[in-house]
Every structure is written in C-alpha cells, then in structure tokens.
Amino acid sequence: ILNVEQSPQSLHVQEGDSTNFTCSFPSSNFYALHWYRWETAKSPEALFVMTLNGDEKKKGRISATLNTKEGYSYLYIKGSQPEDSATYLCAFKTSGSRLTFGEGTQLTVNP
Amino acid sequence: EAGVVQSPRYKIIEKKQPVAFWCNPISGHNTLYWYLQNLGQGPELLIRYENEEAVDDSQLPKDRFSAERLKGVDSTLKIQPAELGDSAVYLCASSLGQHNEQFFGPGTRLTVL
Q: How far is B19 from A73, CA to CA, in rounded Å?
C-alpha cells in the first residue's frame, strides 16, 4: 500500500499572505508527482506534473518543487487571493500507472 | 475543446436502490478512469479502461459495482443495490494513454438515504 501524506489538512490565511503545503510520498519506484487544485463543485484541475528530482515548476503565483530522493514536494502560493481557495491534492505515480492521492490540503483565503 | 462530461451532477437515492453514472471522456482519449472520493479523503481508483478493456479493476467492489465501456468511448458505472456507505463523489477522468496527464470531470455527488 502506497502512503501519500499531505500537510496541513486545512489552512486559513489572509489575502496577500504567502503559504505552502507539503506532500510526502514513497521514495522508491518513483515515476511522477501530480498536483491538482479542486474547487468546490468544479473538476479537479491539473497544476503540475513533476518527474525529475530537483524539478521546480511555476504557474503564475503558484510554484512547486520536487525531491524524489527524500520523497517530498512543496507547493507554494505567493500573495494568496480569495480565488485560490480550494483543496490542493497531490498524487504519486509509480511506473505501474495508478495514481495514489493524498487526502488534500483545504485552503481558505479570507479577504 | 470540451472537457470530461459527467451526469448526473447530483443524485439522491434510498438504500437498496440501483443507481448509474455516465461519463463522456475527452475526444480521442483512450484511457478512462473511475474514482471514488469519500469526504475528507483523496480520490481512489475503482477501475481503469484502455479503450473498451478493463485493465485495472482490482479496487472495484464487484458484488455491487459494475462498469462498462462498450464502444471504447462513453462509460457507465452502476451500483446495485446502493448502501449508505456508498455516499461519496464519483469522479471520471480520461487521458491519452496511461502515463499521460489525467483530466477530470466535475464528479457525481451521490447521497444514499
């Protein structure tokens, strides 16, 4: 059984604050690490797919880093806005192709 | 380009009743997935199709759950009979091959009373 852990479970920040979440995953048989954003009543939206140790990816105010040797990834949001409020999911993939999701970090950005 | 379409978006039924969910993947995506998402947890894979073939259904509770993708495009997931514990969000996703990015639909939120 693959164990993917995310922390914190939930987070409340003020508009303008920067924040970050952690995703921990097994360091063996690594193939890819996915980050998704899931807003209530909408489809989960892919943010990043990361495959190489040391990868850093950025999309607007959101960025992510990957350390496959120690089994963790960080997601950063700079200058949080109310529209960033969502659940952020990470998912670990081995070469066997099944995605194993963490429980998510629920972010609320207060105006 | 249209995304993954699911219907219904919401369904409320009484326990022991049957229920079916429908998914239309992104055009050209040969791989289709059904996931179950319980409250406070991440999505868990129920079944994966490559075209019309179910290649990973080890997590599908086969006593009450069934799925089909007869022509390798649309798919239906059925529960018969539904139990209280089946209340959850059922997500469909598709991809261009098993190792490519998965695109998700909005899900069907099932409530079993």
A: 38
